[in-house]
Amino acid sequence: MLDVVRRFNLYNGGGCLPPKWGLGFWHRVPTLYTDKEVEEEVKEFEEKGFLLSVIGLEPGWMTASYPCTYEWDPGRFPDPTAFQQTMKERNIRTNLWINPYISPQGELYDKIEPYTSSHTVWCGLVPDYTMPQAQDLLKQHFRKHQLDIGVSGYKMDENDGYDFWLWPDVATFPSHTPAEQMRQIYGSLMQKITTEIYEEDNIRTYGLVRAGNAETSSFPFVLYNDYYNHRDFITAIINSSFIGVLWTPEVRASHTSEEWLRRIQTVCFSPLAMLNA
C-alpha cells in the first residue's frame, strides 16, 4: 500500500518543496489589525523569545473582502511597501487572506468582468480561472499590489463547497466549463495561478487553501478547513499524511489550558505550524 501511495504522489508531481521560512512558526493576527498593531505583535514575539517566521493578515488588510478588491486599505495600511520592508528587516514573511470573488469597489472589476460567471457570489464577480485572459489580469493585479512589494504568499478561502455556498448548477462560464465541474477544480486552479506567479520570479511560496484535487499535491499549499475539534485535528493529519496531502489545523480556541497545549503540539507536527488569532 505504501508503494501505491508513493507512485500516486509521484504521478501527481511528487509533492512540493516548501521554502525554509514556510517551516517556521506562523501567527495570524485579528481581522482588523493595523500595520502598527501587527508590528507590536511581532515585537512581543521577539521580547518573549518566541520564534516567528510568518505573519498572516486576515480580510481587514483589504479595502473590501467579501467580495475582494485585493488592494490595501489605506486606513489600516497607509504605506504597505514600508510595512513590508519593516517585516523583511525583522526576517518576517507576510501571508495574505483572499477569497476568489471580485468586488465592484476595486480596479479589477471592470477589466475582468468579460471573463466571469453569469452568477455572482456575495455580489462579487466569479472569475473563469480556466481562461488565459482572466489569469493574466489576476496575475498583473497581484503583482502590482502584492508581489512587487514583497508579499510571500496567500491563504485562499471560500473556494470549496456546493451550489448553496458558491454558485448554482445553472451558472455558466465563458469557457463553457460546467458550473458543477468548475466548483470541483476551483481551488486547484487558484493554486496553479498563484504558484505560477512566484515561479516566474524564481521565488518559492507557501500558503493555505480550502480546496484541492489530486494533481495539486505538487503545489506549495496546505489544506485547511473549519475543523475545531482536537480529535478531528489528529484524524485529519494522520489520514492526510497517508495519501500525500498536506493538511493543517487552525489553532484558535480551546476549552482548557491542557487542550490548548495539546493543540499547539499537534500543529507543530502538521505541515504548517500556525496559531490563528
Label this structure with key terms:
36% helix, 277 residues, globular, seven-stranded parallel sheet
Question: What can you tell me about this protein's structure?
Answer:
The protein has 277 residues and is an alpha/beta fold. Helix content is 36%, strand content 10%. The protein has eight helices and seven strands, in the order αβαβαβααβαββααβ. Strands 6-5-4-3-2-1-7 form a seven-stranded parallel beta sheet. Strand 1 (25-28), helix 2 (35-48) and strand 2 (54-57) form a beta-alpha-beta unit.
- Can you tell me the overall shape? globular
Mean of residue pLDDT?
Answer: 94
Structural Rg: 19 Å
Distance between the termini: 39 Å
Contiguous helical run count: 8
Major β-sheet strand ordering: 6-5-4-3-2-1-7
SSE order and pairing:
Blueprint: H1 2-11, E1 25-28, H2 35-48, E2 54-57, H3 80-89, E3 93-98, H4 109-112, H5 132-145, E4 153-156, H6 179-200, E5 207-209, E6 221-223, H7 230-242, H8 257-268, E7 273-276
Parallel strand pairs: 1-2, 1-7, 2-3, 3-4, 4-5, 5-6
